[in-house]
Design a protein that fits this description.
about 240 residues, alpha/beta, Rossmann fold, 11 helices
Length: about 240
Amino acid sequence: MPQTRAVLCDLDDTLFDHWRCTRGALMELRALESSLAGWPLEELERHHRRALEAWHLRVLSGERSIDEARIGRFRELLTMAGADRAAERAVDVAAAYRRAYARTWHPVAGALDLAAAIKSAGVTLVIVTNNVVVEQRLKLSRCGLDPYVDALVTSEEIGAQKPDAAIFAAALDRAGASAADAVMLGDAWHTDVIGAQRAGIRPVWLNRFGETSADPTVVELLSLEPATSALKALLP
């Protein structure tokens, strides 16, 4: 196996704990908004995830801004929950969610140690993410990941989203590496694992929530801790 010169890495729910921040924010909203409290937390999470993914695609296409999409998804959720004046109240609910979400930004357990270990190994670390530049730069900065990241490649900048090979090609170009001497770490099977495979890059799947692997030949990590073990999976 060629020596690994570059680690391409997803951000949300790989290095940045989007799940934790989202759950905390939704818990706060349930305490503030009685209509959303009518759903068990797990059901609210499912509805929110579905709405978030649909509206996020509109952001990535340039159809909506992040703020417009956030209001749109909460208008949708409030309507589903039977809230009165859902369209009017969506603005305040979306703002409350954003404040709670941003207040709990946090790296995934072990992410900082792993990023530092990659840096110490002399390997280039490139973030490859289906999101907008401003949002992802803020996450890297506030979570303390900035010193370890050599480049940030976003779908907004490239005009292509994972699993499209174009965004992986752009990341390889930033890293100065070929597909054969790079590895892709990510939590999302379709966008990260399948996308990397299509681009000829070896994938490593971060499976924090114990899902069933669709391909047992793909190297799997259940956690980024300890960093020594995670690094061995990335740089065998």
